[in-house]
Write a structure and sequence with these properties.
This protein is α+β, with helices and mostly antiparallel strands. The protein contains 18 helices and 49 strands. The longest helix has 19 residues.
Amino acid sequence: MTEQTPSTPPFRDPHLPFAKRIDDLLQRLTLDEKFSFLHQFTPAVERLGVAAWRTGQEALHGVAWMGPATVFPQAVGLGATWNTDLVRRVGEAVSKEVRAMRAHDDRVGLNVWSPTVNLLRHPLWGRNEEGYSEDPRLTSAIATAYTRGLRGDHPTYWRTAPVLKHWLAHNNETDRATSSSSVRPRVLHEYDLRAFRETVEAGAVAGVMPAYNLVNGRPNHVSPYLREHLRAWTDEELLVCSDAGAPSNLVDHEHYFDTHEEATAAALTAGVDSFTDHGTDSSQIVGRARKAYERGLLTEADIDTAVRRQLSVRFRLGEFDPHYDPHAGTGEFDTPAHRALAREAAEQAIVLLRNDGLLPLAPDTRIAVVGLLADECKLDWYSGTLIHRSTPLEGLYERFGAERVEFAEGVDRIRLRTSAGAFLHVPEAPEVADGVRGAEGALDPALLAGRTDLPPLTTDATGTELALIDWGEGLLTLRAPDGRYLSVADDGYVRASADQPGGWVVQETFRLEPHEHGHLLRHVGTGRHVCVAADGVKVAEGGPELAGPEPEVWELVVAERGEEAVRRVAERADAVLVFAGNDPHLNGRETEDRTTLRLPAQQERLLRAARSVNPRTALVLVSAYPYAVDTTALPAVLWTAHGGQAAGTALARVLSGDVSPAGRLPQTWYADDADLPGLLDYDVIGGRQTYLYFEGTPLFPFGHGLSYASFSYGDLTTRVDGGSLHVGFTVTNTGDMTADEVPQLYTRAVEPSVARPRRELLGHERVTLGAGEKRELSFEVPLSAFEFWDVARGGPRLEPGPYDILVGASSEDVRLRTTLRLDGEPGAPRPVLRRGLEGADFDEQSGAAIVDRTKTAGDAVTPQEGRTAELLYRACDFGDGATRLVATVAGQGVVELSVDGGAPLAVLALDTATATPYDYTSLGAGVAVEGVHDMHLRLRGPLRLAHVGFSG
């Protein structure tokens, strides 16, 4: 179609601007049709030839949930590459596979819910694997690269439309749908918003997904920040897609609104455009929106705004211009280039944490390979199904030869004997198709059921030897000799049926509970004990009133301890590689935070067993998160995230020296649980969290990573030109092999007036240098990067003074430094006579939480439960004198005010509780204070303080 004809409506005319075409289509839609666009699954409008559409296609490190696809390293592993060019190419490959898969399966969507830009503030967060870094600039750099790859380079049409997850301040699975992150203004602007902002401003983002949690007492799905910040960063129409079930949570779990109609209207007017709720059934959301409209809670203009944003994405994806869409014929799927890229990404994600000369291994080394992760290629909840698979053991066999590699998994080999003397038996399986979880693809893999086509377990006189694997904290898996894991399907029977532990509710985990002279075996997924019935082994019926067999008391008969097998192979090897880490579906995943940084006890025992007979033992950690491990006696330690389909080949190439490692830690590795803040403490400044503020000694610092080569740095130059700082220096490979280095540029305010970061990343670059090669690098840093959020003025400020400029190989390995003085705007006292004090604009606090002032906007402060809130507001200017103060409060309690830590200036008591936490009242008192002083406030009781005003 080249010209518009009378039969061609304007929205079909590719020569018109998208905005005019959307206007035309929007005015052709009926109100009922517009309502239908509000749900994730939008039906077709057949009379206009508009196809059905859905938001949401998971693609965090490859196309997920829709069957076989190329699987790249986990997101935290991509973050560890510190390589934006590589990550852009990964995003490009993923988006091409999305297009190729959609051509054969229209369930595959083009609205990609990736990447996750939540900052890795706390290493016990269960979803650590999904983020890139604890640092906002590194996170935004990697996320921007990935979204640019997902979007594609065409100026008009997008290959896929990426949505950033999860807005905002979301780092806990514990009570994730009801907990509130207390985020002070400095942390909000300097930390949590920054990763989103810089990625959105780069121009390759189609939208965001709000998180389940609340921020400052208000659910993210009704946050004013969507309007005040997100939509102010770009002129593009951004599509805000709710997280699954979150709209209903506003009433059902958070109890923030009384009715679903109010909640739906509030979310829509706050900026949520597409509601992911009730699966494919749109009737609930559409019905709620229609009732909200009928009650006057929504206008048609509100609905038009949301529909317009969805249509904007669909037009950019070329849906309405199939003849002009340059991506329509994309067929690149599982290509040699994609396989090579998966291996390159896995290699670049490997971080060498420690090396006293053990690595790389010589070609003739006799290697003992041991550990629970040695012959595994683990997937996570957001992985696709593997087409190709390489475990570390397979990679080492291929690189060194099977005759030089000896393997011991290190699991305990056991039989389970019943109280009657019989043993648990795995029947021989009939000839049925090998089942791999998720191979067929599913819009919602949480709905996938376990297999019932295999016979249940029974008991007999000899039983079956099982591999007992302890993943920590008593969480066990049991594996049959054929490699299948014991699992429980919907019918309650226990079968050896799962290729791996997995699923939204994992059905392959058990706990042994001491009981009488043996153990009860509790199935974790159902919470029920395992019993022996006449027709097979199954879990007990739920409830004492239900008839059925009693839980069986089992005796563990150990055929071999894992440590014995490990010692046997380790003592006859030249070097031992202990592969330890996690299964991404167990003890730390979506819905479940970790409780400790420690390695599981069984894996620590295997490491000790290997070390006890062979000091040339290296630890290779394959995990989605950091561990606290005593590495002092180990000659070498490596870490990699779960590396996708090429993980094993990549590790073998690094261990052999075919590739020099150059990954860098994207987050601090703490030495002990005692170094960690509370999981729900989101105040990275006050809590001294992440490398930015942590004052202790980490196990390994942010940015750390070693190489088989060595590098020297020199020729540091700096100059300020206009609004930017220009930094230059040289890096030379002084080693004898080609290798990558990751020079990192940091700053530190030397004489700050407020708490500032100990180090703050300004830039980085991953470079490949041949032996003896010298490279000159340059960075241009906007002076805005040196600003902080000044709560006294309610905006950013560049503080004049000296700043250290630091260049090195990590945040602690500084090779070059200089100090320069930057001009800026001097600080000024708070003009409290004119502006008063906003409760949340404190400089320091203890025992306080920030909460919502109203349900639509504003903040207040309140004591944490059972505590007294102490608030400090520095340099308050009372001018020639204040004679009266007025505090705006709600709830019930006491406000005590003093200056410079002296005697109370005023004590205000709200003795009778207000009707609701949002019914504010004013409490006043006469005062006599002049000049500049620090103001101290103390709050007691369930009281909310919004503002304190002063007058003369």
